[in-house]
Amino acid sequence: MKVIYHCYGGAHSSVVAAHLHLGDIPMTGRVTPEEICSLPEFDQADAKDWGKPFLIGVDNVGNEVYIMGLGNQTLLCCRAITSLACQLGKADEILLVKTLPTIGLITRIGGFASKVLGIKIGRTLAAIGIVNSLPGLRRLVGATKEYLEWKTGNG
Amino acid sequence: MLKELNLPFAGGFPGKNLGVLILAGKAKDGELVYILPRGNKPELVLKVLERSVELFGEDKNLYRFVDCEEYLKGETGSRKQDLYGRLARMVAAVKEELEG
User: Fold this and answer.
1) Which of A12, A48, A123, A127 allows an S-S link to A36, with CB 3.0 to 4.6 Å?
2) ipTM of this model?
3) Which contiguous run of DSSP H or E holds residue A68?
4) Which residues of B touch A (CB under 8 A)?
5) By CA distance, what is B24's nearest residue in A?
């Protein structure tokens, strides 16, 4: 199965969700903004990277974990991917997970400051926002993994 | 003009169908022909589709995405009445490319 965590820019919430999925960030306990900033893909993707699935790693049961930014065309692009998968008879091979609803205003402001305005402090602000949003991201990733276990039978 | 030809889907698609690939049929030489209502910002959705073809392990050389509106924009002498002729030229060019 290919799991694609997607958000607006593919630089913040989807990156953290993918690393939570892969176990690079713990599913419980405290995480610092510095740990978030140290993720190689954090705050990296730009608008030119939108629409490109980027492989982060393979989880312990063989699922490929990707991130992707879809700008403000999430619905349209998800329909396109899903309908292509259906036409190819591969609908069972893909799972699209939207991470944007789990994050709050601080990450959004930080992300905007960093990626649009080019202000360095935006990166730190985004990381602080992500730390605050970790419970929601963890719930989302946990639910995704539960679904994958049910779907693939890999308990 | 297209409505007068009474073709399936010629009336367009509602917003909920934007981004959905619709199989229109199989051409004489065996290629599958799809329609994609791509909305008014096509760049991202077309990029997503091209990348997804690779993601699913398909040979991207076997896929040809033709942005009809973009193609027709480039046509000279684009009178509205000549839409059918312009579309026919576009399809002929695509088929020629496929054969080549």
Assistant:
1) A127
2) 0.88
3) strand A64-69
4) 18-21, 23, 34, 36, 38-39, 41, 44-45, 47-49, 51-53, 55-56, 58
5) A87
Give the confidence band of B5 by pLDDT, cuts at 50, 70, 90.
Answer: low
Nearest-angstrom CA–CA distance, A8 and A100: 7
Q: What is the mean pLDDT of residues A56-78?
A: 95
Report the residue of chain B nearest A89, measured CA to CA. Answer: B56
User: For residues B42 and A18, what is the distance between their CA atoms, to the nearest angstrom?
Assistant: 27
- DSSP string for B13-51: --GGGTT--EEEEE-TTS-EEEE----S-HHHHHHHHHH
Comparison of pLDDT for B62 and B10, the residue scoring more: B62
- A70–B21 C-beta distance less than 8 A: no
Number of Cβ within 10 Å of residue B83's Cβ equals 14
Residue A58 vs residue B38, higher pLDDT:
A58
Residue A109 CA to residue A100 CA, distance in Å, equals 13
Residues of A within 8 A of B23 (CB-CB) are 87
CA–CA separation, A82 and B48 (whole Å):
11
Q: Are strands A64-69 and A54-58 parallel, antiparallel or unpaired?
A: antiparallel
Locate the chain B residue with the closest alpha carbon to A78: B19
pLDDT for B10 equals: 73
Which tens digit of pLDDT belongs to each residue from B47-86?
999 999 999 999 998 999 998 888 777 666 556 667 788 8
Report how far residue A47's alpha carbon sits from residue A10's, in angstroms, rounded to the nearest whole number. 9
Q: Count other Cβ atoms within 10 Å, centred on residue A101.
A: 9
Is pLDDT at B20 greater than 60 in this prediction? yes
Cβ <8 Å between A51 and B19: no
